[in-house]
Design goal:
single chain; mainly beta; Jelly Rolls; eleven-stranded antiparallel sheet; four-stranded antiparallel sheet; 5 helices
């Protein structure tokens, strides 16, 4: 169980952000065997799964909507997509694809990261979760579709826990050497009786399971016995002002300006615009990868987290150069 910290990467979920804005962030099931409560797939919380049974050669799908101001961003940009708490490996005859709302095709320029087929209509190796990059997902509609197909007449009980979609942000460099990783056991409470005996109650000791298997587990063999809640205390030195702050000269959120390439707090590539603002300073969860170059699931290198700090403080240490400290806490 490696916990090395390299150059961290953040996976920001634009579905959660759209929902928080009250402008998009919806999911609607259609076409057959998935239930109507697909809205629960948004929010990076795979602990509650939805399920449906297919007994015929049939299609089903879930359509997701984004904040409509983002539609042109997704037309050409590279995005990440994750499907968590699934059981796609249970049947070789059942396939899935992610594409535009009117498409039944593999996502454009798909690059697998973890447990993702490399070709259209091929088998997913493990149950659990899948993560990949792609470009042009959703076209210019601001919508995208997760499609499921029962290729032959077989019985398939499909399960889904959560779906995330958005853009990645990689820190400009690795954190300072004085980083700290803690394992919290805040769900364990001990009391000592008058007779000196110790009584212990554990309301939780690890992340909640994702359906039938553990969080971040692949397959059916239990291989991850990790317990505790991970907390990272990181500090980054000598970050340039363009890496940490948006251009706040003129803010215009009209779709035409986004399409023309005008960069603002919605489209900015700095840390504040890309990460802090779109997670609302700790309100929304994100996926944290302590070492962005290591996607090996055996390394236990992914976590659903929130920022555990009430403010973001930049310290000026030289001309246009800043230091920043981050506290990142695993959540479920």
């Amino acid at each position: 169980m490696a916990q090395n910290v390299g150059t961290p990467k953040f996976y920001i979920d634009y579905l959660s952000y759209s929902r928080a804005l009250g402008a998009g962030g919806t999911a609607t099931a259609s076409g057959g065997y998935l239930p109507n409560n697909a809205d629960s797939l948004i929010g990076l919380n795979p602990t509650q799964t939805i399920s449906g049974t297919s007994t015929s050669q049939a299609f089903s799908s879930v359509d997701f909507t984004l904040y409509d101001g983002m539609e042109n961003i997704f037309a050409t940009d590279t995005m990440w997509c994750g499907i968590f708490g699934h059981n796609f490996a249970d049947s070789d005859d059942c396939h899935w694809a992610v594409g535009g709302k009117t498409d039944w095709a593999w996502a454009p320029n798909l690059i697998p990261i973890v447990n993702t087929p490399t070709a259209f209509r091929t088998t997913t190796e493990y149950n659990g979760w899948s993560l990949f990059n792609c470009t042009g997902l959703g076209g210019s509609s601001g919508d995208f579709r997760l499609s499921l197909a029962n290729a032959n007449v077989v019985e398939w009980d499909v399960k889904l826990g959560s779906v995330g979609l958005g853009k990645e942000y990689t820190m400009p460099h690795s954190p300072d050497l004085n980083l700290k990783l803690s394992y919290e056991y805040d769900g364990v409470k001990n009391i000592q009786t008058k007779g000196g005996a110790t009584l212990s109650n554990a309301s939780y000791t690890k992340p909640a399971d994702w359906g039938d298997i553990g969080a971040w587990q692949l397959g059916t063999n239990v291989s991850n016995f990790r317990s505790g809640r991970r907390v990272w205390d990181l500090s980054f030195s000598y970050l340039s002002d363009t890496d940490v702050m948006p251009n706040l000269g003129v803010q215009n959120y009209e779709a035409d300006d986004i399409a023309s390439g005008t960069e603002d707090i919605l489209t900015g590539t700095d840390f504040f615009s890309s990460v802090w603002n779109k997670t609302m300073g700790g309100h929304l969860p994100f996926i944290f990868q302590p070492d962005g170059s290591n996607a090996d699931p055996k390394a236990d290198g992914f976590a659903i987290c929130r920022f555990d700090q009430s403010s973001l403080q930049y310290n000026l240490v030289a001309n246009n150069v800043y230091d920043v400290k981050l506290k990142i806490r695993e959540c479920w």
